[in-house]
Predict the 3D structure of the following.
Amino acid sequence: MLQLHKNRFIIGAATTLLVMGCGGGGSSNEESSGGTGGASDIITITHKDFTYKTVKSPETNRTWLDRNLGAEQACESFDDVSCYGDYYQWGRGSDGHEKIGSSTQDTEIGDIESTGSKFVIGGTGWTTDDENGTKRKAYWDRKDGSSVCPDGFRVPTFNEIFEEVPSRSTSNLAVFESFIKLPSSGVRWPFGGSLLGDEAQAKIWSSDFIVNDSGVQAKGFTFSDVGRTGFIGNTSYGIPIRCIKN
């Protein structure tokens, strides 16, 4: 069930919430920003025609990109559309489907090595290839710049994201105000291809998944005005990615 409330949405049966307690191709160029102390750790990276900088977590000391993949700039507000970035179907490459204005198709792709550039709509998955999810997981785990993330970076695991935001009470506004400045960019909905939840929910994919009666289901996080929830959802969702240094 999908409930809409002034650009907000709540995913019903299609998504399982994970309740947790508190606790391709391309190259990149790296250039130190100079300075002293923490500033000397900031790196400028160019990858697939986009320029990123790095930020270091005060929680874990891990290094992340300062914006979502495909974002024009780091966020200046939680609803800054120029920092929303791209919307990836889980395990898929930077083939053009991730652009919010990309065209759609209602047939699943038979070969993940030849995907085309259309966003797949109409179902819970985007491909009939890779029935157990291992190919897509391995692709997003690459750290040599041949996948979606720059050289030396990869898509984070579910636990790596959780360790940065362990509190269930972390809202979409709070996660924007944190070091990672995650925007409320919403999700590209696979049943029509429209953008839902922008300005109300911050979402992020992890590289992890499970296989259940519904097939391959991917893991990620949602931040809204009610706090942080982990989810297991359809691989056909279009959700932003934030890369972590390996």
Observations:
- Residues 87 and 238 are 4 Å apart (CA to CA).
- The chain is about 10% helix and 30% strand.
